Amino acid sequence: MNNLDHKSLRKQVAPFEKSNLRASIWQLINTLLPFLLLWVLAYKALEISYLLTFIISLVAAGFLVRMFIIFHDCCHNSFFKNRTANKVIGTFFGMLTLFPYSKWGHDHAIHHATSSNLDKRGTGDIWVLTVEEYLEASIWKRLAYRIYRNPFVMFVLGPIYVFLIENRFNKRRAKSKERLNTYLTNVGIVVLAALVSWAVGWQAFLIVQGTIFMISGTAGVWLFYVQHTFEDTYWEEDENWEYVRAAVEGSSFYKLPKPLQWLTGNIGYHHVHHLSPRVPNYKLEEVHNQTAPLQNVPTITLKTSLKSLKFRLWDDQNKVFLGYKDIKELVSEQKSMKKIPSLEK
Do 123 and 105 meet the contact criterion of CB atoms below 8 Å apart? Predict the structure, then answer.
């Protein structure tokens, strides 16, 4: 899309950057109520078998992901026209999804402003090293990177750490309003957990909510990972980085089956979202379908997205993701010039 008219594209998308109150309220209803119903059913199913509870929790987890998308839209002030309404609903849904509204919203705004920029990595994104950085790193840094990028760590342990631990604390330079919002979120989480535990028992609460949490957490991290880690993605140094290209080429169109597309709040149209975060999730598909240039973007499916698991390092020279095996020859060549500890086997 090198010949893309950036100004024209932004102009075509602009009319969709308005929320619809009726659509937003309806989405709140058709997301929150089914989730609560499924949660109760999952709890009741414990009397029959955990397998049945797991099956119901699997569907409930999809609705929790959808709740996060609403929270996400509120952070962008795209779910409602009123900023206060976004903050109130966003904070409440942040309690349900374990994300502090102000803290995460701040980091996520930085992610949008720096996505695919090699010189501005580190906030609101996944750790990515270039081939050169990896080869020059110490054995301990490479080991840490390998552990971080291990699928079990990233998609199982990762959600536990980020959602339950990292999200509970403010950064040192956080402003007072951001700190207070995090404290409020933490208190809300504790109160909600205590009330439900009192109503159904702490063991049942941990079983049901724990199952839903693990499934939705893994799904959420996977969505974020795969929408920025794919074969034809875009990464550039700051001097060559372009916002529109980073949006439409550095964010994938994850073409999901309709039920999964609905449960994930159309976030598969990630290229549209990055191009214009002010477009509410229920309009993303419409923007894609009515904007011709956006239909010619990197597209992945459930099957092809699995390839992203082998992508570990960004080759800045050839503009492609590589796996560890792909750089064996590079490591061997460099080892012949100077001694570099190797993890490759």
Answer: no
In the chain, the amino acid numbered 291 is T
- Provide the token pair at 164: 């339950």
pLDDT in tens, 136-150: 999 999 999 999 999
User: In the structure encoding, which two tokens stand for residue 181, read together?
Assistant: 């919002």
Three-class SS state of 269: strand
pLDDT at position 313 is 93
Output the six-digit token pair for 43: 């709890």
| SS3 label, residue 296 | coil
**Residue count (the chain):** 345
Average pLDDT over residues 288-298: 87
Instruction: Supply 330's token pair.
Output: 């590079």
DSSP state letters, 212-237: HHHHHHHHHHHHHHHTT-STT---B-
Q: Which two tokens stand for residue 74?
A: 């509120």
Q: How far is CA 77 from CA 70, 84, 232, 247, 269, in A?
A: 10, 9, 30, 19, 18
Which residue's structure tokens are 């374990």? 98
- The pTM (predicted TM-score) of the whole model is 0.91
Look at residue 178 and give its three-state secondary structure. helix
Number of neighbouring beta carbons within 10 Å of residue 287: 22
pLDDT digits (tens, 9 = 90+) for 310-337: 999 999 888 889 888 888 766 666 566 5
